[in-house]
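User:
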Amino acid sequence: MIAQNGLTYARDPFDVDRFTAVREIAAEMIAAAAGGEVSVVRELLGKDSGHATPKVDVRGVVFKEHKLLLVRERSDGRWALPGGWADVGESPAESVVREVWEESGYKTRCKKLLAVFDRSKHPHQPPFLFHVWKMFILCQIVGGEAATSSETDQAAFFGEPEIPELSIGRVTPWQISRMFEHFRDPALPTDFDPACGPPESKPAETIL
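Assistant: Predicted structure:
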């Protein structure tokens, strides 16, 4: 991120050289830690341009009869709240409604922003090269039925004691528990890091 921001604003040729060198060092460090090729990492880092800003991951929090909607990810066979990257041109509400529909088959409307968490402050694995904010949005079912998608092979509702193995890259047990707390007490304010976070957990280390 330092290199990307520097290359965005640097005008002096010497500064451009310095920030290019910083990006090369970062690529070498990441490749060494991951056991990959420097050229691959260099290409990945070079794809982003402009001032570095966080990516936004939206997650739909959908309850029915005191149970929470989860979808099973085809990629790892584990469960998560339906969601994904917010798209350019969509509001967070539009993005999460689309994601819930695509991944679970349920049509919803948004009710409340329950939490905005910094992914790097929670024990998600694996860590990402980029900075991510996770938005958890309470949604109400207005139609549809359980369905599969290219990314998910099952959608089901679970009570808090029944939560299956989670896809930790997408959602953590503490986050799921916190969503149930919001369900039991609708008057809770929106959560923000670091005011509200998993005190019993050590956040995942970031590579950069």
